[in-house]
Amino acid sequence: MFHLRKFPVMDINKALGCLYGQLIGDALGNPYELVGKSEDVKALMKKDCEADGFLPIRGHITDDSQMALTIAESVCRNGFYDQADVACGYVRWAKTLPADIGNATKSALTIDVRLPPSWKTALDEDFKKCVLRHVLRNVKQYNQDSLSNGCLMRVSPLAIACASLTPDQMRTVVQSDTMLTHTNDVCAESVIAYSTAIRALLYGRSPKEAYDEALSFCRNETVGNLLRAAAEKAVPVKARDADVFGDTAAQGYVGVALQGAFYELLNAASFKDGLVETIGRGGDTDTNGCIAGALLGARFGVEMIPLRWKRTIHSAPPTIPSLELPTDIEDIAQRLICAIDPTKQKQHSLSN
């Protein structure tokens, strides 16, 4: 088994790029979500371009990044990944009835339990674990066959936070988060491969090295085939027995997002070009955008992201103020770097 080599210093420029990429890809893709065919999305994008040909952000962050920020807040507050705490954060978010929540995510997080605004301090550990049991029961009942992209769209902050863990420890942590909405092994291994690549990029590995490490650490044949296909093409994507382009059929398939993101990791000439190409393929544009955006941000770093996009995201108001999610992107990135303490994570795991 190949293990990711541990490097002494993580690049804050890459971590900040990853987080900005998540948010920018989400917001940039938001207006084109589910428009449909690639050619229709590209026509709208062309119409939206400014006089100098630059595509501005006309949307806002959606469920993808709201869930990502929920993870970020939890691990920074606790110093380790607490599955029950994150489950409560997700449930609290779902109770705000976000318009763009996915079906699998909604099925998992809809429970008949009231969480007060002060739940982070008001709820004891036993109550949080009760919430977790409700969520895991829903996932087992409703989502065993789901191959949707909701598990992948939110994980980039967790990949940053796991940087101080061993690859096997990271696998366990990100798999724990996947289990809050999905149980299928294709989903779990997609998240692990993606997180492995982000971790490698943050430590200075080249795109090809990050890709190779993700592929080497993969334990699922379907995901391995998706990664191998990504070396040659973004689409079509093999979905069971059919080839799909993800703009009409199989829009929310995790494989569409994964293969497209890794293709751009290996082939994009710039952050901007890779993200515009991703969104231009149509389909679930905000989710595909945030997944590719985080990976591209970790590859190119924050300095290579267009200033106009960063300014738009930096000055955007909270989309759900009642959740009190973190808004200072630079501060979040700094705090996320190695936010998960290996000793605390091990102690927490042993006690649960």
CATH superfamily: ADP-ribosylation/Crystallin J1
Q: Please give the count of helices.
A: 18
Averaged pLDDT, please? 94
Structural class: mainly alpha
What is the CATH architecture descriptor?
Answer: Orthogonal Bundle
Low-confidence parts lasting 5 or more residues at pLDDT below 50?
1-8
The top level CATH class name: Mainly Alpha
Instruction: List how many beta strands DSSP finds.
Output: 2
CATH topology: ADP-ribosylglycohydrolase fold
Describe the main β-sheet briefly.
2 strands, antiparallel
Count of distinct structural domains: 1
What is the molecular shape? globular
Strand content: under 5%
Give the helix level as a range of percent: 55-70%
Strand line-up of the largest beta sheet: 1-2
Enzyme class: hydrolase
Catalytic activity: alpha-NAD(+) + H2O = ADP-D-ribose + nicotinamide + H(+)
Cofactor: Mg(2+)
Keywords: Hydrolase, Magnesium, Metal-binding
